[in-house]
Write a structure and sequence with these properties.
Blueprint: H1 3-18, H2 64-70, E1 82-86, E2 89-94, E3 97-102, H3 106-119, E4 124-128, E5 133-136, H4 149-154, H5 156-159, E6 166-176, E7 182-195, E8 203-208, H6 212-225, H7 230-239, E9 250-254, E10 257-262, H8 266-279, E11 282-288, E12 293-298, H9 310-314, E13 325-334, E14 337-343, H10 352-366
Antiparallel strand pairs: 1-2, 2-3, 3-7, 4-5, 5-6, 6-7, 7-8, 9-10, 10-14, 11-12, 12-13, 13-14
Length: 367
């Protein structure tokens, strides 16, 4: 049995032996265990490409504990289909997309947003102000672990052996808007550990669906970090709970090239495509809104890591990297119909098979 399975089953075996009971507190969020620096077994899409130092975060990953030990944190104060405003913080919603619109320049918001994630107990795997993207490392929501008799009695002695078999990461994207303020987007990606055989003695990590509820909750908490009270933030979130559904995307062919089409203007299409890229297996390395282009690196999240064999481990060889490719995702809109196409790194048509696969991924996320 794999160690990861053991740590999930041990508490329940002990629980049966002692006849205790458990309660799953699913409405709580607690990612502070991410600061322990535990290496999580996840697909290799987090690794940087060799030789591409432009996108490597300087130094080691940032942790909440190391940050708080060295610096005192000071508190800082389109046409959406649903919007609620308090002071200079606006909670926006259009269909399944939620974001904050803040009447402050992006450079004034970067540090408060960065501090927000560190104070929430996350590691920052990506911290790139030049492209307006920060991303947490994979972390576990410890609040999902049963608060049973054993854990309450033995406490921290066995706390480290508990695991939910789920991992989450969050990407934050800051974009300047036409009004001189900043739009802030938070997207969630999830993984779950699943059995690979009937004997249930081996597991792999598989992607699970993004959670809009988690995204909304962290947007609400960020509102509080930016000066909104807890009570006001909850009222704002509740008042914006209902919004018309966004138009469905469809896969089409233009000049024998696969594309995604959706009936909406450029502003909304640009925003929705950005969130779709964030929620799936893309790394946005740069973007040019004036030209309607996202520059991305894509790793198919269903690809498994190929572990080195016996002699490879004996010789100290690491896990070989999964092949990745760079593309341009172009967004154009004409007569209220947006078209999303896949280009190669030079701006020419991407290979047909790759374009078809990526177009389908984007369309599925936009539905």
């Amino acid at each position: 049995m794999k160690p990861s399975l053991l740590i999930r089953t041990l508490p329940f075996a002990l629980l049966i032996g002692l006849g205790g009971c458990s309660v799953l507190e699913s409405d709580r969020i607690d990612y502070k265990s991410s600061g322990r620096g535990v290496s999580l077994e996840v697909p290799p899409d987090l690794t940087q490409l060799p030789g591409q130092s432009r996108y490597v975060v300087p130094g080691s990953a940032v942790s909440a504990s190391s940050y708080q030990a060295t610096q005192a944190v000071a508190a800082t104060t389109g046409t959406p289909t649903a919007a609620t405003t308090l002071a200079d913080v606006h909670f926006e919603r259009a269909g399944n997309e939620r974001w904050l619109r803040v009447d402050r320049p992006a450079d004034k918001l970067w540090n408060p947003v960065r501090e927000f994630w560190l104070e929430s107990g996350f590691l920052l795997a990506v911290d790139q102000q030049n492209i307006g993207i920060m991303e947490t490392d994979w972390a576990e929501n410890r609040a999902k672990i049963p608060q049973d008799f054993i854990r309450g009695t033995i406490g921290k002695l066995l706390d480290s052996v508990y695991s939910t078999g789920e991992r989450d990461k969050f990407r934050t994207r800051l974009e300047r808007n036409a009004q001189g303020g900043t739009d802030i987007f938070i997207s969630h990606r999830g993984m779950e550990e699943t059995f690979t055989n009937a004997q249930r003695d081996n597991t792999i990590w598989q992607p699970r669906a993004s959670d809009p509820g988690l995204e909304a909750e962290f947007l609400r908490r960020l509102m509080v970090r930016l000066g909104v009270s807890q009570e006001q933030s909850k009222a704002i979130l509740a008042s914006a709970a209902q919004a018309p559904a966004a138009p469905n995307a469809r896969v089409a062919s233009v000049n024998n090239t696969p594309v995604v089409q959706v009936n909406e203007d450029f502003d909304r299409a640009w925003r929705r495509v950005g969130l779709a890229l964030d929620r799936t297996g893309f790394t946005v390395e740069d973007r040019d809104r004036n030209k309607g282009i996202y520059f991305v690196r894509y790793v198919d999240p269903t690809l498994e890591k190929k572990e080195p064999g016996f002699f490879g481990r004996l010789l100290g060889r690491g896990t070989p990297p999964v092949p990745t490719s760079r593309y341009q995702i172009a967004v154009k809109s004409e007569n209220q119909v947006a078209t999303v196409s896949v280009l190669d790194t030079n701006g020419g048509p991407a290979p047909q098979a790759a374009a078809q696969r990526i177009v389908q991924v984007i369309a599925d996320e936009l539905k």
